[in-house]
Amino acid sequence: MEPYQLTATQVLSKFKDGSLTIEDYARSLLLRIEKRDAAVQAWAYLNPEYVIRQAKQLDAVPLEKRGPLHGVAVAVKDVIYTKDMPTQHNSSIYEGDEPKLDAAAIITLRHAGALLLGKTTTTEFASTTAGPKTRNPHDAGRTPGGSSSGSAAAVGDFQVPIGLGTQTGGSTIRPGSFNGVYSFKPTWNSISREGLKIYSLILDTIGFFARSVEDLQLLSDVFALEDDLSPKDDFSIKGARFALLKTVVWPQAGPGTAAALEAGAKLLRDQGAEVDEIELPPEFDNIPEWHRIVLHSDGRPTFLPEYRIAKEKLSPFLADHVENSCKIPRAAQLEAFDGIAALRPKIDEIACRYAAILTPSVVDEAPVGTESTGSPAFNSMWTALHTPVVNIPGFSGDNGLPIGLSLVAPRYHDRQLLVVSKAVGKAFEAGGGWKRQVYS
User: Fold this and answer.
1) CA atoms within 13 A on the CB side of 157
2) Alpha-carbon distance 109 to 46, whole Å?
3) Is position 77 annotated as part of the catalytic site?
4) Interior CA angle at 139 toward 136 and 142, to 5°?
5) pLDDT band at 78 (very low <50, low <70, confident <90, very high)
6) Residue 328: burial class (beta carbons within 10 Å; 0-12, 13-18, 19+)
7) What does R_g of the chain's alpha carbons equal in angstroms?
8) Continuous segment of H or E residues that includes residue 185
9) How many CA atoms lie less than 13 Å away from 229 in the CB half-sphere?
10) What is the reported pLDDT for 345?
């Protein structure tokens, strides 16, 4: 196995036993990127000299003074401020802009010893579904999803083991599915969003991409994610109880997702789990529309500065937010805010009855073309409800491209959800039929 193929937990063990230097690891990643960048185009900014300089500095730190991510490469979505790299939001308004400060998440990563590899592509301000230049590593004619396009594609293509993303609708879970990797949207506001270009304060969540659940658990340690009760490390699928939930948007599901959900439930049952198909109370049917109202309403103040200084450089979609082209009255905005808030404890109570809720991550495999990043229909509910979600890879669609399934837990049950996800991930990887590949 080449160094660039290692997960974060694997490479950390090699740093500790002295069998690999951080500089050699960084050079392996850079060679991988050089070889694959024309096909995938995941990076908005990458400076190899800066990467090697960081790696040499990290190699010089004694083992006893190293942090939990020391030397591990991380890709950063280009809506998160980094003081030594541009943060451009895929907007000509901020072309070449270099903030003078790090976002809180970046400060945390640096303190843990992470090797910040570069900035990855995003849709404009992580908002629209219009795709950036990035291609799906499994099929260059298809989208990698969005808005965290570059982070997901880079992790899926073995260009980096860890990617930082954000989610306002489906921007972490959907690209995780399309690229065949694990992706994790923690409980809302459990990771500081200071230094992130905000779209919606009550929706935006920082999330992660990785090729193993162990790496997601490592990141959860770094960001101090904690449940009230310690998770049960000896979780077994046998005897566990899962809910299978199609949600109100199920009519949008394609054949690949329908087959994956059926196969996922069967794999759990074959390992001795009880899988109950459930339906949510009718009031949950309002969430897709309420999410849309919140998104458009929160976008009005968010993008007012850009609208005032450079309206001609702002996409019509975002200009419409500021102008309230949808004519959303304040009464509807309040109804959406309060309606969603009232349902959050209700979904917690339902989810607490199960090890996890099994539900679709995507409409189907990644659609053809890069003009759109695909539909977040199956994600927006969980974003609005603030619940933690993990995309579990393992299945494929009619064209052989990856399709994942989501596991959902109550709010602030993130660590327990990751323990469950580790066991379910092994079952899906063994029996789901889709295998991760290294493309040359």
Assistant:
1) 34
2) 18
3) yes
4) 60
5) very high
6) middle
7) 21
8) strand 182-185
9) 9
10) 98
Task: Name the pLDDT band for 232 (thresholds 50, 70, 90).
Answer: confident
Of 148, 171, 220, 396, catalytic: 171
Give pLDDT tens digits for 100-140. 999 999 999 999 999 999 999 999 999 977 889 999 999 99
Give the whole-angstrom CA distance, residue 11 versus residue 31.
17
Residue of 28, 77, 183, 375 with catalytic role: 77
For the chain, how long is the longest CA-to-CA vector? 62
pLDDT tens track for 253-263: 999 999 999 99
Token pair 């309040």 in the structure block, residue: 334
Average confidence (pLDDT) over 144-154 = 98
Q: How far apart are the first and last CA of the chain?
A: 14
Site of tokens 């995507």: 362
Instruction: Note the pLDDT tens digit of each residue in 398-435.
Output: 999 999 999 999 999 999 999 999 999 999 999 999 99
User: What are the φ and ψ backbone dihedral angles of 75, each rounded to 5 degrees?
Assistant: -95, 140
Closest Cα to residue 168, out of 122, 134, 133?
A: 122
Three-class DSSP category at 413: coil
| DSSP assigned state of 136 | B
Per CATH, domain 3-285+335-431 is 2.30.30.60: no
Judge whether 313 counts as a catalytic residue: no
What the block records as the tokens of 197 is 């270009």
Tens of pLDDT, residue by residue over 348-368, are 999 999 999 999 999 999 999
The whole-angstrom separation of Cα 191 and Cα 80 is: 13
Distance CA 270, CA 348 (A): 27
From the list 28, 91, 127, 147, the catalytic residue is 147
Burial of residue 436 (number of CB atoms within 10 Å: 0-12, 13-18, 19+): middle
Q: Are strands 162-167 and 205-210 parallel, antiparallel or unpaired?
A: antiparallel
pLDDT tens readout for residues 22-54: 999 999 999 999 999 999 999 999 999 999 999
- Does 192 participate in catalysis according to the annotation? no
